[in-house]
Design a protein that fits this description.
single chain; alpha/beta; 7-stranded parallel β-sheet; two-stranded parallel ribbon; about 10% strand
Length: about 450
Amino acid sequence: LEASGSDEVVKRLAPSKTVPSLGRARGVFLTGATGLLGRCLMREILARIAPDAALFCLVRDGSIAGTARARLEEKADSNTLDCRVRVIAGDATHRKFGLSDEEHARLAASIDVVVHSAGVVSAAAPYASMASGNVAPAREVLRLACLRPGAIVVHHVSSSAVLPPLGTPATSSEESWSESATGSGKALASLAAKGGYDTAEVHGGTWQGYAQAKWVTEMLVWATAESCGVPVCVYRPGNIGPRSDDGLGCEGDGTMALALATIAGGWTSDMRIGERWRLWWTPADAVARAIATVAAIENGDVWANRALHVDPVEPLPASALMNRMKVRMNAGVWKRLEASGSDDGGSEGGGDGDDDDDDVSAWRRAVLAGLHALPPTLRRKVESLLALKSGLTGAMGAAERRMDGTELRALLQTEENGDLFMDACEEVLGRYVDAFAEHVRGER
């Protein structure tokens, strides 16, 4: 485990006996507020905190609070911000968020709940780069919580990437990871000891830097919970998809870019990859609702010091998405993206195992043929996926063991009379495609 760089994070301190919920919090501290998930979380948190409570949002933009607020207003929905939103100008990667000692202590004294969603995602970046954007922010959140040990609860957004992929020695014959079996630092350490991250047979032998950083981050969270008495709840979403109501987030989504390259390169409905490639999306707003619903439960014993899995139950096949894209292309929205039929639209790429699978090989040929038709930003996104050792099988999630979210769904059904999980259904896919079409048209 990386050194925290702060004695405050490793001291054994007496915890408070109360575990605050969103509804009873005087103040809530949100990181990552300008990101896709953070924007959704802001809306859900404001819907659950008291009228006289405050939501403190950390926003990176120099040292001027007014400038930081302008950035938040630019990113957030116009009807989201209200007088309860307080902007903290700072940087999640800096010690004490770049705040003075007095400002840091004042923030700790003003909050009871932290919802930590700040982080950096990349399938290609090395660990050193991912650590600065994931481990460092979590360390600072925990440093803040340790100023009032046990009185500040931390809801930490982790990732399914912390769990070993299929094909490693620690992976049993079971089809999914359960929440109770993996909900502690000891459990993750045990998986590592059993060779859970020995990826010699998986992902081309490479344990991705992002997965490493999220694993180290979670280990730090669990260690702080145990040693300092900080109540934590860890959420492990899989693939966070665009927002379900308007498709916000499609413009930067790798799945959308890959699907567009596939059909531009000549994909047809008789290619079996359309059924094998599943859309393991949970819309960002559904993830945010799940987190906020749990954080609002007043009985902290229900969720404190456990991990909860956020994953779709019945993901649609990629063919459902690509068929909708083809309809839009035929309607003239993306006529300029029609493939010329060239086979040399990009350099060869893909994982070492792709050639062993005829379906994946045919898919790769279609993607390479369609690359030249994509706008530059989307082309680079697909090329980065192809450059990974895991290739298209990694993008398809073929090596990932699915997560069992039974415990989270049970909590949501109890609290909201429904599990709030909204897999990316056909109607949602339609919104995704409409939003993506507008983005592609603007890029061209």
